Amino acid sequence: MSETLDAAPPHATFDTVLVLDLGSQTSHLILRRLRSIGVYSEMLPCTQKLKDLSWKPVGIILSGGPSSVYSPDAPNVDPLVFELGVPVLGVCYGCQLIAWRVNPNNVAPGVAREYGETSMAIRKVGNHADRLFEGLGDSLNVVMSHFDKLVDLPNGFKTIATTKNSEFAGIAHESQPVFGIQFHPEISHTERGTDIIANFALKICGARADWKMDNFSEREIVRIRKLVGDKAQVIGAVSGGVDSTVAAKLLTEAIGDRFKSILVDTGLMRLNECEQVKETLDKHLGINLTVVDGSNLFFSRLAGVTEPEAKRKIIGETFIDLFEIEALRIEKEAENTSFAGKVEWFLQGTLYADIVESLSFKGAASSTIKSHHNAGGLPARMQNGEAHLKLLEPLRELFKDEVRAFGRQLQIHEELIGRHPFPGPGLGIRIIGEVTRERVEIVRKADHIFISMIREAGIYDEVTQAYAALDTNRAVGVQGDARAYGYICVLRAVTSLDMMSAEPYEFEWSLLKAISRRIVNEVDGIARVVYDTTSKPPGTIELE
């Protein structure tokens, strides 16, 4: 272990491109494109005051967004963005914002909405502005998604790209490294979109492409040891999913037996989940998992609750209550032993996707997406540091695919790395309506049939996440020549790289019908099965 490794967060170690989120549903894809080329990136809400940052980005990207720059409540950015002296790239709304700041009359409603793919001509101007499209030819097919448009070229700027409906599809300042584009390079259907982002990050910002998982373990172990100290103990929520498993393995490497792994049986787990997770972690990682039965407490607190956000908050609060009790028990048992020390830290496998989805672009807890159990779903006392336990989240800068790569670096068995994600609130957010023991048992059986048949068909690894959910509205059916009136089972299966966007898995029709037939025939209480074909966005992967 190198003792010279800095224990600072990644943005203090790596050249970092900052993405300021102005409300686009695809802002996170800008981060993914940057990290895919080896450039570390972070996203913050557009309200972020740059003077409050302890670090300086090498470049800033202003995302797209659904607003109009001339609306009274239009989102804006800190003026310091344009005074830091670092390159700035505005995407769609971000481009309009740059032009509007020069002169509000530069932006107006367009005559025709420009949405979808269109051909864009690249215009060479013979100075630094050409670097954004360097090596990309004379034209590209790009994805537009805007109605407002630039109607005048901002003073001091040159036109570097045009389309049929956008005379100023790309602009660049004559002397400063400030660029604006009216299309979305982060969307996969934009031709050479990643190359455009790479030109900005590598050639214009001069960022080093050195972000990779190779030394993440060493760096995090140093940071954890400095943060936790020599005596404090850590307890961790370990569910057997890839996120918590990787986090648990990392903590074990860092502090050994001072880390205690705990699985809370909420009563909302999948069929035989607790027993299987305990056996698998012991077999492949040598982790001695303590299982705590909290099912009675969870069901009592969830009684009568139907609103998804309320369910998530209750589950998050109950988790922390139980872990604080466990912390006191562990401290008591450790008295007068070599492990004596306060349990000060609570480990969670929070990922960057959890953080992004739990914040709106205005920086507050989002009401338009949802609170994640690992982020916004935690009780306020945990988030503001007033709880008995302090949060430890070593994976919070990583996306799902990066966590899997990190897990392989830690030599975690593929059975654990490839396991489908399972949400912290469990089946509680896969039941639309009130959570009861009867409904949990119904959806548990349906889910077991669904996943078993996916495995038998040999396609489990092709699907990123799959599950059965229960719509507690009822539908009429015919079973055994008699009228049936039962719940609706919703099947969901998606493919995704980073869980920030996803597409429905395209089953063979015969397999989907066979799954449906088995569930209706074998699970009492279900009268109908439907398959959810919604992409993310606009949907989310979980129903609640």
From TrEMBL:
Residues 211-419 form the GMPS ATP-PPase domain. Its EC number is 6.3.5.2. It catalyses: XMP + L-glutamine + ATP + H2O = GMP + L-glutamate + AMP + diphosphate + 2 H(+). GO terms for cellular component: cytosol. Pathway: Purine metabolism; GMP biosynthesis; GMP from XMP (L-Gln route): step 1/1. It is found in: Cytoplasm, Cytosol. The keyword DNA-binding does not apply. ATP binds at S239, G240, G241, V242, D243, S244, T245. PROSITE patterns: GATASE_TYPE_1, GMPS_ATP_PPASE. Its main location: cytoplasm. GO terms for molecular function: ATP binding; GMP synthase activity. Homodimer. PANTHER family: GMP SYNTHASE [GLUTAMINE-HYDROLYZING], GMP SYNTHASE-RELATED. This is GMP synthase [glutamine-hydrolyzing]. It comes from Fusarium mexicanum.
